[in-house]
Write the structure tokens for this entry.
Amino acid sequence: MHESFQLVVFSLDEQKYALRLAVVERVVRMVAVTPLPGAPEHVMGIINLQGQIIPVINMRRILDLPEREIRLNDQLIIVHSTRRTFALYVDSVIGNTEKRQEEITKIETVYNGIQYIEGIIKFEDGLTLIHNPEQFLSDDEVVRLQKMIQSQPEKPVSEIKTSEISKPKIAKRKLRPPRK
């Protein structure tokens, strides 16, 4: 019997990447991120996700990709590692797929010592790197972030509400009669 697993596939620029579905809580639209002074370079800041303050990690910085302006259709993948819940800032989430364990090429067989990457999977349109979110934050960074978050003064923080997650907001506008 072949062991299978599910992946969440996302993109940055034109390249596809993946995470194991087991570590993904949900995907939400991008919201304003509150900067966190002194945070590690790849941490954009924090958001308030239904009462839980979580750091936002910029995948472009992790992967050493060029920065770009944040767009309205960018997304956050809410991820649980064994040490911390955090959000990954990505261009878009493409979807999820199921693959067999033997379809993964372990990264060690290609190149030993690459951080963040668990393996490589082949799709019809190319290779996709599977990331290991356990390695996005070191133990020291997790402890430092926790202290920074706890020491934040009571002030407004970007907040995602359940209503914003479940249904998109549609701008209401009045229709004008056609011109004659």
